[in-house]
Amino acid sequence: MTIFMLGLIVSAIVVKFGTQLSNAIADTYKSYKAYVPLLAWMFQMAALLILYNVSKPVASGYFTSTPWAYPLIFLLVALAPTIKVVVKLVDTLEGRNTSKRLLTN
């Protein structure tokens, strides 16, 4: 239980300071501004991996009949930020289509 609590604290620190670090990199190097969501995503995934590994011994007793459910939960949690970062990167790198055509009959 002590390792779980320490892992929870470490993953919270990684998320908090990782996103701040990615914003600081973007402020320092303007050419990397488009990649802020990707850097923040990398720190979020690192925090999820830490949390996955430290909570595995605690949660293994609850998932004895369905051992596939525990990794699936973390996969689903990781899916939302992944989709969000892909959409942001595509919008940032390609740009939005600003030319709209007026359809008249």
Question: What does this protein structure show overall?
Answer:
With 105 residues, this protein is mainly alpha-helical. It has one domain (2-94). Helices cover 73% and strands 0% of the residues. Helix 1 (2-28) packs antiparallel against helix 2 (36-59) and helix 2 (36-59) runs antiparallel to helix 3 (69-94). It is flat and about 60 Å long.
Short structural summary:
The chain is an all-alpha fold and 105 residues long. Helices cover 73% and strands 0% of the residues.
Helix content: over 70%
The total count of strands amounts to 0
Order of helices and strands: HHH
- What's the structural domain tally? 1
How widely separated are the two ends? Answer: 69 Å
Keyphrases for this structure?
105 residues; mainly alpha; 3 helices; 73% helix; flat
Write the layout of secondary structure elements.
Blueprint: H1 2-28, H2 36-59, H3 69-94
